[in-house]
Amino acid sequence: MVDLDIQIPTTFDPFAEAGELGGTGTKEYVHIRIQQRNGKKSLTTVQGLRHDLSYEKILKSLKKDFCCNGNVVKDNELGKIIQLQGDQRKNVSQFLVNAGIVKKYQIKIHGF
């Protein structure tokens, strides 16, 4: 008989390598997203900031500069997430770059 190199199909996990590398790709990028609420209301979320930053001080500055409300939400998988009322995506990205918190190429803006 002839030996054939046949691989038996197994379950493939496309995110297995990400777990070995130390988590998802959010460590190198700051993701700014918009979430639609009811009607015209929306939320802007900022995720992926470095852990050594003071989220409360950043939130306080964002709230004061953009005249909106917001809070910091702790998530088990994603870490701390800043939420702001309204569509503040462009304002937040400009603020983070001008404050020197992140570089412009590290920001990913999602939504609409």
TrEMBL record:
Keyword Protein biosynthesis annotated: yes
InterPro entries hit by this protein: SUI1, SUI1_dom_sf, SUI1_euk
CDD domains: eIF1_SUI1
Molecular function as annotated in GO: mRNA binding; translation initiation factor activity
Keywords: Protein biosynthesis, Translation regulation
Top-rank lineage group of the source organism: Eukaryota
SUI1 domain mapped to chain residues: 30-100
GO terms (BP aspect): regulation of translation
Tagged with keyword Cell inner membrane: no
Pfam families: SUI1
Gene3D superfamilies from the UniProt entry: SUI1-like domain
Annotated family: Belongs to the SUI1 family.
Role this protein plays: Probably involved in translation.
Protein name, entry field: Protein translation factor SUI1-like protein
Species the sequence originates in: Hibiscus syriacus (Rose of Sharon)
